[in-house]
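Example: Cytochrome bc1 complex Rieske iron-sulfur subunit.
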Amino acid sequence: MSSQDIPEENLPAERAAHEHGRGAVSVADERHPFADPGLPPHEHRIQDVDERAAKRSERTVALLFTVSMLATIGFIASYVAIPVEKIVYVFPIGHINALNFALGLTLGVALFAIGAGAVHWARTLMSDVEVADERHPIEASPETRAKVHADFKQGAKESGIGRRKLIRNTMLGALTLVPLTGVVLLRDLGPLPGTSLRHTLWAKGKRLVNMNTNLPLRPEDVAVGSLTFAMPDGLKEADENFQTEIAKAALMIVRLEPRDIKDKRELDWGHEGIIAFSKICTHVGCPISLYEQQTHHALCPCHQSTFDLSDGARVIFGPAGHALPQLRIGVDSEGYLQALGDFEEPVGPAFWERG
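Written out as structure tokens, the predicted fold is:
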């Protein structure tokens, strides 16, 4: 602002010296070529002189904070009530996901209302008196620190936060509710697993399907010393949940001479030397794909965990923590291999750390 923009009556040296204190220069000279014009007189707002106007502003600010709280509640209600696949037409945007539109709208209103309420509060009710202060060294003196504390207390007093309880309470309510939007969005990290990690698609009567041919397996399809991979009948690669389900249900089928099977339960749970173990390594979940026919050892290619398929698939080498789960199998009335139930223990890696 130039001196031409300020009425002359606001430029006397006495006013400048009074308002700016020590160091104020009201008249230019050789040492101080720029004069200090001083501050224009403070103009009071209507809220400063009319308590009814101040009350109206207070109610406006409180209304904005209340709108923010209602919008936050609307955000949570939308998240719970609106199906994720619902599509609506909104002019002029067009067809849009209803949930995304509702979440964006309510969160935007909640944040805008808090900001608008704070701005309106500052512009109409907080003190707007101009204060000029001298520059000071970076290191604060005890006097400066005391002044800062005093200014802070004075500012808090002038803000009216202690006296105007309606604004204070609604502001605190709005600021308390808004973070709940972030907490609710944590739900999008995925559905809670529940007991899904403890179960697979295998069930009594479910046929074993060759993963390469997609045909049900008969005992004669599995030769001694061979390795076959199987999945539950009815599971298709085109299914939306195929990867999730196959990661738990993939089977490794081998056929041994019954006399070579050391573990009695393993022999009882198989059929004529055909045994089915989970293909998922119990270390970090890699698919086991290497089989040593002479030793009956299955080797995980990721970290070389080695399992003895002739002795309950126990770990004989590597970082895996426990044996491969075995699936109990038999033959149905049509001569196809079938499961006689689900795995009796969870498949995959580090289950006991997962809960």
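Residues 196-354 form a domain with the Rieske Iron-sulfur Protein fold (CATH 2.102.10.10).
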